[in-house]
Amino acid sequence: MEKFVINGRRALNGDVYISGSKNAAVAVIPATILVDGECRIENVPDIGDVKILVDVLISMGAEVRFEDRNTLVINTRNINSHIVTYEMVKYLRASYYLIGALLGKFKQASVPFPGGCDFGHRPIDQHIKGFEALGAQVDIEHGIITAKARELKGCSIYLDIVSVGATINLMLAAVKAEGTTVIENAAKEPHVVDVANFLNAMGANIRGAGTDVIKIKGVDRLKGGATHTIIPDQIEAGTFMIASAAAGGCVTVKNIIPKHMESLTAKLTEMGIRVDEVEDSLRVWGNDKILKANIKTLPYPGFPTDLHPQMAALLCKAEGTSTITEGVWDSRFQYVDEIKRMGAIMKVEGRMAVIEGAVNLTGAPAKATDLRAGAALVIAGLIAKGTTQVHNVYYIDRGYEDMEIKFRQLGADIKRVRV
Length: 419
Ligand code: EPU
Description:
alpha+beta, four-stranded mixed β-sheet, binds uridine-diphosphate-2(N-acetylglucosaminyl) butyric acid
């Protein structure tokens, strides 16, 4: 077990380079199952969730080699099983992508019900509805989801709720189906587009990703042989932007797609924080005077739910009372009790966090309850007076490459300590 120890109140200055997108990588890696040839994937983040998926593919018979820390070459031609065991994926939410990929390849899949962070109820009914519309029979027994089809046939699927996971999973299952599949009310997140681009580079025919109607013309095979570069991580970039705004100083967040950051940039600007766009970077200027804000998280291009806890940490410094309404998950407020240990004044009313501003946080021991809650505690530690210990760092390592090293390079006093 490890913890971060942070001595707060150091301004952040300099450049930070953003890694590849976690939520794109955890879909692209299972997607390689559908490809007959070799796939070369660049800008893969070196994070816990990627390591788990690589181990899953290897245990299923895939050849995987790292050309360097962030470049993976995967060949799945020797995978001959459609079965994934609980032990392989118990900590991984994105294990659901193995269902779509295995179903697409073998017309059958047997995968444990997904694990991952706890945000209350996490149904996958829209994934199942889509698999069934494509012609699969889906059963859940003893914690295992089995999907089986004689033929997968293109169809029209209207998602009742905008779901990133269901949108990507149905692209995976439909990419080699007979005929055309249309996904309506599809998620528009940048990583949905990235997965479609990866599949197209390997020989798929997917149009419309990034809009709410995606059309997938089934192809006989994905021949592979191409290189795909994972997009920059929108949420890692947002975490560093928020941290910079909170800690003061001037940080240039590099190697990003500024367009993906628009909802955050607009909100920070509204709060009186200067953000300049410079090519593939955003420069954030910390400010002692931060204005209160009301935020509602929504599917892309709305404000991302995965930046909700980090934003709550920043709003402790704002003048007046702010609110964050969670519009995606039933419950994403586990961070509240932990950040309150540091003196934050917050309460949860239904799906809304009410945050009193102008509070002087003080360092304290606290524990990450999930990935983004962990990031919020690190930000709180950076602005708090004295020493903060953030426990359960493994949550943070699931989704951030070298978080503490990147903060240290910006001038933070943060170190990783064995407990
Ligand atoms: N939902 C349903 N039925 C479904 C699927 C989803 O009701 O079949 C609901 C969910 O309960 C939720 C909403 O739809 O209320 C959105 O869920 P979505 O399916 O979009 O989420 P996900 O695919 O499980 C991904 C990210 C999450 C991120 C959400 C929302 C991955 C591996 N995970 O989850 O990322 O919060 O989209 O953007 O891509 C994180 O990175 O910290 C993280 C939790």
